[in-house]
Amino acid sequence: MMAGRPQINLGLEGVYFDESRICKVDGQKGELYYMGYPIAELAARSTYEEVCYLLLYGKLPKRTELGAFTSQLRESRQIPEGLLSLIRSMAKKAHPMDTLRTAISALPAYDKEAYDNSTAANLRKSARLISQTASITAAIGRLRQNKVYVTPDNTLGHAENFLYMLNGSRPSPKEARIMDTMMMLHAEHSSNASTFTTIAAGSTLSDMYAAVTAGIAALKGPLHGGADEAALRMVRAIGDPGNAERYIDQAIAKKQRIMGFGHRIYKTYDPRAKIIRSYLLELHNTSSKEVRRLTGIALKVEELMVSKLGKQKGIWPNVDFFSGPVYVAAGIPADLFTPLFAASRVVGWCSHMMEYWRSNRLIRPLDYYTGRLNMRYVPISKR
To answer: Which of 270, 284, 320, 352 is catalytic?
Structure first.
């Protein structure tokens, strides 16, 4: 460090800004915990609704508590007619994330508690946001394909209803379970870029809708939420498992980023990717020819990357790499991957926002000025 010059942590890497009980990410061991529960155990035994309750309330629910919470989610699924008109006007003209962001920012117009910042109100708003974000995402997907909007079915679970609203037919139990697990795996991941952006926006004491809108804006980029869509584009560009090694070798030689590999935190295999990989193997044996082709390419790329860059450089598959083929198998178009990520992650944003508000302090970092001083103003006529 130069005398008088502060240490600059680009990207705030390695900087702690708060304490949290919500999520533990151990990048060295490849472990992930929600409220202390290992992600693998939750994925095997829990549901997305139960995980949402865990993240919002800090404990696993009793049967009656889960029943009341599930009812709250189901009662909030319907999109207000005025908001649906807005979505219709944007769906085919804008990126789905732009439509989602705009729709979420409009929700306060339909919520009498929008500006009530009490904990009780924010818990209710969080439940509404979980339901509405999923419904809006499904509606965007339908309307972009010139299909009729499907109203929610309140007899279905959260992930099951999302697939029903998107595809217009009830998914099989297997399809519903895979989607439920995918939403669980994306529900929370510590203070990533979108979560930090949510907290930064909310630290001004704006409101939950404004904070979540900011999170959606941050999630849009290909270095964060858009990575799974970019990874699928790469898999499709490879075209066939036999082309994978040449593609990977050329990318490594040119020092190109290989989407879906490497992570700011994980220095070993992403635990979420391990779980999704098991679904990929299942789909590879049971799905359509197109899905089998995509899963075959993905599995070959993984094999090559692990052997070439895994142990040597710590570049391992992350959650984004395997997600694409799984989503394709569920009938989800690639441009809807990131909105679906938002629909899954909204509970994490809300949980962190409420936790931060308990001892709120405006987030206001510093930047180190390196420009000139005492510049002399020159009138425009003399420039």
So the answer is: 320
* Spatial CA neighbour of 211 closest among 108, 139, 132: 108
pTM of the model: 0.93
Query: Is CATH 1.10.580.10 the classification given to domain 23-225+336-357?
Result: yes
Instruction: Note down pLDDT in tens along the chain; length 383 residues.
Output: 456 789 999 999 889 999 999 999 998 898 999 999 999 999 999 999 999 999 999 999 999 999 999 999 999 999 999 999 999 999 999 999 999 999 999 999 999 999 999 999 999 999 999 999 999 999 999 999 999 999 999 999 999 999 999 999 999 999 999 999 999 999 999 999 999 999 999 999 999 999 999 999 999 988 888 888 888 989 999 999 999 999 988 988 888 888 888 777 877 888 998 999 888 888 877 778 888 888 889 889 888 888 887 777 778 888 888 888 899 988 899 999 999 999 999 999 999 999 999 999 999 999 999 999 999 999 999 99
Instruction: Parse the chain into domains and list their residue ranges.
Output: 23-225+336-357, 227-329
Distance CA 152, CA 77 (A): 6
**What is 227-329's CATH superfamily?**
Cytochrome P450-Terp, domain 2 (1.10.230.10)
Question: Among this protein's residues, is 320 annotated catalytic?
Answer: yes
Catalytic residue among 189, 263, 284, 352: 263
Catalytic residue check, 224: yes
Sheet strand arrangement including 37-38? 23-26, 31-34, 37-38
